[in-house]
Structure formats: C-alpha cells, structure tokens
Amino acid sequence: CTLVIPSINTLCVVSCTLVIPSVNTLCVVSCTLVIPSVDTLCVVSCTLVIPSVDTLCVVSCTLVILSVDTLCVVSCTLVIPSVNTLCVVSCSLVIPSVDTLCVVSCTLVIPSINTLCVVSCTLVIPSVNTLCVVSCTLVIPSVDTLCVVSCTLVIPSVNTLCVVSCTLVIPSVNTLCVVSCTLVIPSVDTLCVVSCTLVIPSVNTLCVVSCTLVIPSINTLRVVSCTLVIPSVVDTLCVVSCTLVIPSINTLCVVS
C-alpha cells in the first residue's frame, strides 16, 4: 500500500508493507522524509520503524542548517526519536557574521540543531584584517561567541608603530587584546622608540608606554626619559615625567 501519514503528512508519503495487528501499530517503511520543522534543513532518505507512526528514524542525509545556513552544509547521520533532536555533523563552517574572518573545519553535535561546535580554524579579522591573522580554536555555543586566539597583530593605523605579539580573547571577535609590543611612533619616530604593553579593547584605544624621547626640535639639547599614557590616537596625549635642559636658557636653568 501507500500511506499518507496525517500527523507527519508533509513529512513523508510512504510506500510500505503493513503488518497490522491492531490496524495501525506497526509498519516498516522505506521512504524519503522532508522534515517540515527543518524542511529547508534536510531532505532525508531513510528507513522508518514506526510503532507509533513518528517515534523513530535513523536518517542518512545532508543538512543545510537554516539558522546557520550560510554557515554550514552538513553531511551527517541523524538519529531522530522526535524528528529533530540529535545530529552529529561533520562539516565546514563559513561563519557569516565573521565570514571574512574564519572558514572553520569542525564537528557539530547538534542537540537543538545549532547549539555546539568546537572549531579548529584560522581567523582573518576583517575590521583588523591588516592587523592580525589569527590561529585559534573556537568553542561556538552560539556560533560566534567565544574564541581564545593566539596571534601576531600588525596595527594598520599605527603599522609603522607596532608589530604586536599577543593573545586575543574575542567574545565578540574584536573586543579584547592584551598586547606586548615595541612601538615606533611615526609622528615622533625620530623622537621615541617605545617599549610598551598595550591593552586594546577596541584594537587601538589604550597604551601605557614606557620610553625615552629624543625631542627633535631640541634633539641636540636633551634626551628625555618619560612615561607616555596614550589613550586614543597614540600621539595626541602624553603625560611626561622628565627633566628638560632648555637650551635658550640652558646656562640659566635645569627645569623639572
């Protein structure tokens, strides 16, 4: 016979042989399922053992995960006790919110289709993509929430300033980096080669710099030892602790 199963009638038109002890209790069904709750996700070729019409199916399929459908085309085997509860998926992810950032090779364990992925990848962070090529391991409970990244940053706005070796903790891909580096400040590049530690919440906002300045306008006058606190653009603010020998009055005064 051919069954059209009403409770899953958008799921499966079934060609089968019925063994009917009580008219509708047992059927071994060979079919193709289109699962409506995930019907853009998976067209499933399977064999159903249906004691209560819709309880068990071991499905061999290819999933296109809807909520992450630009993220992953998944080749997998589904064990569907309630149609959509479990899938162990081998795939390659292209994460759209960071799709210039990372092509991810991973294994998904999808109890609710999109909850867990441990991803090994290389990130190229677009907002800082001249800044950092990041080798990392992603743990993606919601696809894009967590990445602890070991990398080397070349900060483009200050790319003559600093090549940065650092470890990124990226909860939203680009929020935090504690960077150990040496800065060569271009606007004052004859002034100072700066050894410092950067704390970059937005890649280029904060640097507390310990350095020695050679002030060019008075560079025959004085080598100045100082500490720079550069809150934003690396060369706009400097709180300097130093001792100046003012040449126009250099026989007059040593100024602190």
Note the main attributes of this structure.
mainly beta, two-stranded antiparallel ribbon, rod-shaped, disordered N terminus, 256 residues, single chain
Number of strands: 18
Order of helices and strands: EEEEEEEEEEEEEEEEEE
Which sheet architecture does the biggest sheet show? 16 strands, antiparallel
Find the structural class using helix and strand composition.
mainly beta
Account of the protein in words:
By secondary structure, this protein is mainly β. Helices cover 0% and strands 49% of the residues. The protein has a 16-stranded antiparallel beta sheet with strand order 1-2-3-4-5-6-7-8-9-10-11-12-13-14-15-16, with no helix packed on it. Strands 17-18 form a two-stranded antiparallel sheet. A hairpin with a 7-residue loop joins strand 14 and strand 15. It is rod-shaped and about 115 Å long. The N terminus and C terminus are likely disordered.
Q: Mind sketching the topology for me?
A:
Elements: E1 2-4, E2 13-18, E3 27-34, E4 42-49, E5 57-64, E6 72-79, E7 87-94, E8 102-109, E9 117-124, E10 132-139, E11 147-154, E12 162-169, E13 177-184, E14 192-199, E15 207-214, E16 223-230, E17 244-245, E18 254-255
Can you give me a brief rundown of this structure?
With 256 residues, the chain is mostly beta strands. It is built from no helices and 18 strands.
